[in-house]
Each structure stands twice: as structure tokens, then as C-alpha cells.
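Let us work through a complete example step by step.
Step 1: write down the sequence.
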Amino acid sequence: MCGLAGYLGNPVSCGAGRQSLLSMTAASMHRGPDSDGYWCDESAGIALGHRRLAVVDLTESGHQPMHSASSRYVIVFNGEIYNHGVLRKELEQTALAQPWRGHSDTETLLAGFEVWGIEATLVKCQGMFAFAVWNKFSRTLTLGRDRIGEKPLYYGWQGSTFLFGSELKALKAHPAFNARIDRDAVVSLMRHNAIPAPHSIYQGIFKLLPGTVLTVSDAYRNLQPVAYWSAQSVVSYGIANPFDGSQQDAASRLEVLLQSAVGQQMVADVPLGAFLSGGVDSSIVVALMQAQTSRPVRTFTIGFHEQGYDEAIHAKAVARHLGTDHTELYVSAQQAMDVIPQLPAMYCEPFSDSSQIPTFLVSQLARQQVTVSLSGDGGDELFGGYTRYLMGDRLWRNLSYLPQTLRSGISKCLLSVPVSRWNAILQNFSSLLPASLSSGSPGDRLHKGAAVIALRSPAELYAALVSHWDPAEQLVIDASEPSTVLTDSTKQPQTDNAIHQMMAMDLVSYLPDDILTKVDRAAMSVSLETRVPLLDHRVVEFAWSLPLDYKIRNGVGKWPLREVLYKYVPRELIDRPKMGFGVPIDSWLRGSLRPWAEELLDESRLKREGFFNPVPIRRKWAEHLSGQRNWQYHLWDVLMFQAWLEAQ
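Step 2: predict the structure and record it as C-alpha cells.
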């Protein structure tokens, strides 16, 4: 795993260019502490920089920037091509075969570019990656990103200079960087606790969409990424061409695919281990790892003393059964809170999924022993593991009994009465109301329910279920929500039912924009490479070919994953209610974090900075402190932006 950075612009001396590259790559040193490399072409105005975390081929033959055998291409690459050994054998049979200089996957990738072309090579690759490759002959720069979005890549024109890099902090280190905060992106952050691709926190700076390549030159500035793989197409094809075997056939096929994916991702020239929570996803990854090696797999988990937040006891039981070399660390609330000041620098742009804290802590723990750690992310999104899928499906079925026009009319009537008026009316009937309407602000709950009643599609229901501040435009001053896959129905996957719709939306939004971003930044901040076998694209494509009742049975998700796992781990160690990977932000904000939060949410400060309307923030803060409502997610969105802004 590595960090890359560079720029394309007006011809400059390589001396000046090297200094800019030094600044850009130094900002990403944590992504590659082992070595650095620089290359520039003075006449073309192209400069490529690299920080290396050596994982495969630790010798100089793996050094980057790397040139292809013909010198046509020069590349900086971040990631792993897991099937590069197979690709090497295929390349050796071609007329353009050249002697290999080492055994790195970067060299294999370059050889593929020369023989098959860039997009055709990427179609053959199984891996996670982001890269920038310069074609000396055509004088064009091509950026590329893996299918699911495990590895990040930012880019954008700043005046006459095109900047790109693994993290925003690298772009900001270039003297041409002069972007302003994008208020519209802040709206997305407030709704979804992450800024969805292709947007970033800065105007004119973008994230490359997963599964796409972007080609640019100094003369050609139109930034239009081209897809070489499409999650939307995979969803549509899988539903239209379902797996025709039995459910047991499906479980057997899945086991073969997972064995291959896990086996490929265990290849490294450095120490390797795995995160283990004791849940289905991480347990199946560890079980398949242990089944393919005679050595105990190194596994890592963190525990919390707070009730309802500790999975360490379950992880220990699974580790003991599988015979892994298990390390656990119980952290105090103070240790967890000590991470918070590091978050703005760690995430480059504001990011407010609070599970970023335990993710960093388990990464820090693992890095003390290994350089690579496998993760179980992806199982919920692919095999129906989230409770909101079943809840949302039930809600949509109930709503669908009434015509949409009638639901819309009821919604308008409820919304026509102000919240304060509803509160006054319902106060007179508090003893007759259900608990959900007898405390706090019942009018607020009625308005939220009215908004749900008016929803017109499963996609709109999904957006409502995953939204925090809604409508977020009323919170952010002089801003409107930008177009994303979440807001534009033409970009959304087309499915056959409400559950599949929510799963598909998670695949193209929540998974890359939140989950994978969280893991990458947290792990790379301590120079730990993470790999995600469940997101091997062969597994993704197979999962989407399975009918829904192959994935969710009797109200329980991830049926085929469980069937595979039960071959290795007893049911009683696995079958229990799902537990999120989180921390008790709600009580912390009322306790130790209160002074820090109060300073960031100070009304005069919010007015002075000019990004937020203070009124709804202060109201939620007061309700949270009183215990009247739990607004931890809404408040954490604002606090992470405020902390990030303060660090700029």
C-alpha cells in the first residue's frame, strides 16, 4: 500500500517540480514510510511522486515511479493486484513478452498496459488500487480506481495545473492549490456523515468514481471518467440472470469463491493478520485464512468496558475455536476520546462516522505486529445483513397498501400544522398516546412520519432511512444538495424489490463513501494495509446473481455466508443479535466531551464562521444534554466539520 501524488501543467523545471512533489508526498508519508520516489518530464510539465509501503517485492525492483519495459509508460500505483501471477503467465505467452525485472504487481500491470491497453488490463485484474500513469508517446495522463472503491484518488484543475493524489492533504501541499470550501458538499455531509463521490469538500476537486478511468492532457481538460466496470450493471445483470442452482449449490459456490479470494489476499512479503470482531463477516475471513495455512493467523480485536459496545468476548471465543494467535486490547473511554483530536488530519476532509474511532484503535493495535490486515467489510451490503433492510421492506409494504395520492394528501395535512402547534394539541392527550409520542417533541415525530408517508419509491425510502439532517439545506447557509447517486434517480441501480434497492444503493454509495473511506484512512494513518476479500469482484457479481431468498431466510440475513461459516465455527458462537462497531458518543457528549463540543457549537462562533444556521444545532444540543433526545449522529456531523475547519 502506498501514497501517490503529482501534477500536470505548464512546463516547469524539474528542480522546482521536485520541490512541489516533495511537499505533496511528504504530506502522505504515513501511506508509505519505507521509501519515496520522484519523476518528471520538464517539457511535458508532468510530475509523479510516490511514497511506498513495501508489501510485495521489497527490493529496488519494486521502486516507484516505475517505467514500463518499452519506456512508453511511467506509473505511480497504490494497491494490490491479487491475480498478477496469473496475468504474468498470460503475458509471457504474448509476442511482446519481456524479461521480468522483479516480482511486483506494478511491473505486471505496466506490462499489461503495453500488451492489452489500460482498460482491457483493468478488466483482467482482481484487486484494489488507484494509479496515475503517464503515456510518453501520446503525452496523456490516465487515472484509475478499483471497482468497488477501496483505494482513494482525488483530482482537479487548479488554474493551469492539474493536481492528483491519494489524499487531499497532498493536493493542498502544492502551491497551485487554491480551492474554496464547497458549501454544497457540506450539505451532503450533514445528511450522510460523508461526502459522496465524485464530490469533495473543495470546489473543483473531485474523487474518481470507483470502476472508472480518467484521461487528461494539458490540451484536453474535459474531465469525464469512463467506466470499465459498473456496479449498476452488475446489479441489473445479476437480477436478470439469477443463479439457477439450489441454495446449497449457492453456498458451495460461494465457499469456492471466498477460498480463492482469501488465498490470493494472503500473499505478502511482510507479516499479515486480520481484524476479528467475532461476527459473521470477520469470522468467515479468519476461518478461511486459518484453513489455508499451518501457522496460527494473527487476529486483533479491541474491547470496551461500556455495556453494549464490547464484542471482544465473542472474538476471543471464535479465535480460541479456530486456534489463531489472538491479541485483544480493552481501551478506556479516555483512550478512545484521545483519538478525536487526530481525526481532522486523518481524514483530510470532514468525515463523521463515529466508528472511525474504534477502527483507528484496532488498526493501531494490529500495526504493532503486522503490515497487512484482512477485514470482513462488505458482507452486510452483499448478503442482506443490515436490520434496516428488513425494517425498510416492512415499512414500504405497509405504505404501499395506500395509494400514493392518498398518502401524499395525509402527509400535507400533517405538515400543514406547525410542530409547536402539534406539541400543544397532543399535550392534552399525553396519557392516551404511545410512548413514542408522549415525550419530547411529538410534533417533531409527526412531521418526520409525515415525510415518510409521502415517499414515492424504495429509493426515496432508503434516502430517508440513511439521512441524518433532513432537509440538510436548511442547516447549511447559501447551499443546496449536489447531484449524486443518492439524489438523482437516473444514476440509481434498478432492482426488483425494496430490499435489493437498499442493498444496491449501499453498494454504490454507503460502502465506498463511508465504510471503505473509514477503513482506508484509519489504517493508513498508522501505515497498515487493509484488504477486503468479500469485495473481490467475483464475489460481488455472484452475490448479485443470488435471488433474495437465498440471501435472507426467515428474517435472518447472510444465509450463504453463515452456511459456509458453520463448517468452521459452531453456530452458537455466531448466532446472536447484530452489534455495531461503535462507541458511546451520546454519553460522552453529555460528559467528558461536553466542554469540547460546547466550544465548537457556540452560537456566536457558528454565526461568525457562517456555514451553519445555529438555531437547529443549538436546539438539538440542548435536547441532547437534557436527555430528552439522542441527537449524537446529527451533532457528530456538525462537530466533525467544526473540528476539521478549526484544523485548517
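Step 3: interpret the result. The mean pLDDT is 91.
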